Amino acid sequence: xxxxxxxxxxxxxxxxxxxxxxxxxxxxxxxxxxxxxxxxxxxxxxxxxxxxxxxxxxxxxxxxxxxxxxxxxxxxxxxxxxxxxxxxxxxxxxxxxxxxxxxxxxxxxxxxxxxxxxxxxxxxxxxxxxxxxxxxxxxxxxxxxxxxx
Length: 149
Known about the structure:
Layout: H1 2-28, H2 34-48, H3 50-53, H4 76-85, E1 87-93, E2 96-102, H5 109-120, H6 135-140
Antiparallel strand pairs: 1-2
């Protein structure tokens, strides 16, 4: 009988420790607010991107690529690099050839996340959120079809 009581006490202690551990982890976890991120991103877009990519992300055919309704936005790593490091050279977007340059932007990780979340979820685009913690790893990842500025 003593073994059963001892085992039950150990189980209870283990449960209590796991419960506390779970509470601690949950206190550090915050749900990402995509709507708030997009609102902040819209402000950045209007200040830094809209002059070339236009108000509705339509771009200027053959000169400035569109951001609206394009699968070019699907590659998160490439998109992050384009925003943070800039891009140059030929690319085909929505069947149209572009061969230009885009300089980099001096944005922190949260700002990059915000503007990309706005772009990836506006004008007919639907993308999963890009979190600020994903920015630096994406810059180190290998990326197909990307040439830095």
